[in-house]
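My current task is to audit a protein record that another person submitted. What it holds is a sequence and that sequence's fold in token form. Thanks in advance; the entry in question is below.
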Amino acid sequence: MERGTSLTPFVFTALIAAAFLAERIAVPLSPRGWYTPSTPIVVLTGLVGGPLAGAVAGGVTALGDAEGAWRRRLAFGGLDAVRGFAAGLVGLLPLAGGTGAVLRSGLAVACAFALNAAGLRLIHAVRSVGQRRVFRRNLLADGLEAVVAVPGLALLLQSYESSGSTLMLLTLGSLLVALWLGAEAYRRSRAELAAEHLLARTDPLTGAPNRRALDEELHRSLARVRRGERPAGLLVFDVDRFKHVNSEIGWDGGDAVLRSVVERVADALRQTDLLARRGGEEFAVVAPGVDSIEALRALAEKVREHVRGLPFDVEGRRVSVTVSVGGALADGSDDRETVERRANLALAEAKNTRDRVVVWDSPPRPPVVTALSARLSSQS
């Protein structure tokens, strides 16, 4: 069978469709990396159909990358077209038999690898991307693809030249289906794990993040502060006289009040703040990027005012509630437990009169130490 000029319209269309679909199959390699099996199909199309067919198959991959930005699609689609054209030139070499199929496949894959390396280097240079680690990781993935692709391409090429297109297309279709099923299974597994992760960090009653999510966010915020970012604030508050609220409107009504408190407080916060339920009627807010104790106190007052501003409508009854708020500023000098302890002490102070805000930027002095300092000052 004469090479490079023997594609029927049906086989050509089937290979172009395979290249398009292969670009849409993302096989995950790492949390931030994936592999699409389009390159071997582009190379195969060039080997059996010639340079023009290979270039068309490579250009079609730009259409298959539906989630990519147009610049990335044009850049990598053009690179694939060049690789397909080069594979088509290799396919014209007068090498027959099984050995010839292996040699042509190996040479075509080697050309594709070299062109891809040069293209990636050029793309990184144009985009001012200086990440050598990313470049080396891409080359490693391409090298592994080349090692795996050569035997498979040689078998497909020899099958096509000896038996026609039927077996080649059936084998190619089976491989694409297997890769698609594997990618879909992985995607569904990741989605289920993400849903379980979200449920494990969500309070089922209010829908707000729970204590576990609060601890993780506070830990991350303090780590960022230690790396030189602006201080973070921690606010803790609870609903005043909540037992009385439950006795007046029932447990279901009390649950409705808690959900309403979460909704109203969320409206008072910034997008960067995290509102979480610590348990019972207690809540907390992690507020990153708070410059001063005055700014944290202003945010705490905003929370308090939003809750007490208007009564809640609970099953046709108007219920007025207030919250007491305690807060502490974290500048990176203390660990998470110390910051939480300061905020809890501030909340306890606020609860003495209720419907009050108490915010500290440093640990409060124990009463004994305060009394001793006052006595020494009077004696001097």
